[in-house]
Write a structure and sequence with these properties.
Length: 301
């Protein structure tokens, strides 16, 4: 029997007039996934998340969480979901503890020791008023509001923007612990080094379409490699070679193909070649590679 997806999206479209924010987008997030949703501003990440939460209506297609269709007024479904928007606004005259208590009440919870633990973890003073907080501390309020709900599914939109590196690390570790305990995590992020460190799977979205979806490990292992040659300033092109840069007596390029074929191609240069480095790409380089590749395919069509 096939395991049911926690989040399932099929041919999802969202149009604003003639502009297609989402263009037949499909993806599946399985139980226990730590899933990264990656793309530049305006790619459709927040639109997708808002449809999942029932905050906006889709134009067409299907979206469901835990087997339930995503639509407005889905209060029963939201009890199982912790949501963190990319930006939050709070009543400035309220104290932090009052905001946390209100958020807990809306989720059908009581303010508990878990709330206190999270405030301590993120060094958040519950006695301060919202108006007294910095941008980073207001972000912490959003995080505690979401995490105090021990949810089955976590849907977070750019969760670490505004946090300092220490708080970012604490946030990801907390989310990782919950994932290891069985929760499913779906998170959009611009901090690709964090995605590579903590997430299991990723989808790259560009102009409302998924251009690539795979496990993080397979993305890194199977993608093009960065090749750096020291000691030569000219090198004949080889199939699978792209993004060539030359600096002095060194050449750097991306290569996707057989290493044996590359070494055979290098044989005529072996007397001048001082060093050869073959490196896996970082998530930042992977994203730029596939994003630029997608743009070239569109321009050629």
């Amino acid at each position: 029997m096939e395991t049911q997806a926690i989040i399932e999206i099929n041919d999802l479209c969202k149009n604003y007039g003639t502009f297609a924010a989402l263009d037949h987008l499909s993806l599946r997030v399985m139980p226990g996934d730590f899933y990264a949703f990656i793309g530049p501003n305006g790619a459709g990440k927040s639109t997708t998340i808002r449809i999942l939460l029932g905050l906006i209506q889709k134009t067409s297609g299907q979206a469901q969480i835990l087997g339930y269709p995503c639509q407005p007024s889905q209060s029963d479904l939201l009890k199982h979901i912790a949501y963190l928007p990319s930006e939050s606004a709070f009543y400035p005259h309220l104290k932090v503890k009052e905001v946390l208590r209100l958020a807990a009440k809306l989720q059908g919870l009581q303010s508990t020791d878990e709330t206190k633990r999270l405030c301590h973890l993120f060094e958040l003073n519950p006695q301060l008023k919202i108006s007294e907080l910095s941008l980073g501390n207001r972000k912490k309020v959003s995080i505690v509001c979401a995490l105090q709900h021990q949810a089955q599914v976590y849907i977070f939109d750019e969760p670490t923007s505004g946090l300092d590196p220490l708080m970012q690390e604490r946030f990801w570790q907390e989310l990782q612990q919950r994932n290891q305990a069985g929760a499913t995590v779906f998170v959009s992020s611009h901090v690709l080094s964090e995605v590579q460190k903590y997430c299991h799977k990723a989808a790259f979205i560009r102009q409302g379409q998924i251009i690539l979806e795979d496990t993080i490990s397979h993305l890194v292992q199977s993608a093009a490699k960065r090749v750096i040659l020291h000691g030569i300033s000219q090198f004949d092109s080889i199939e699978g070679m792209s993004q060539v840069t030359c600096q002095g007596e060194s050449i750097s390029f991306l290569y996707q193909g057989s290493v044996a074929r590359l070494l055979d191609h290098l044989r005529p240069f072996q007397d001048r070649l001082l060093d050869l480095q073959i490196q896996e790409l970082s998530m930042e380089e992977l994203f730029r590679h596939y994003y630029n590749q997608g743009k070239q395919e569109v321009s050629q069509s």
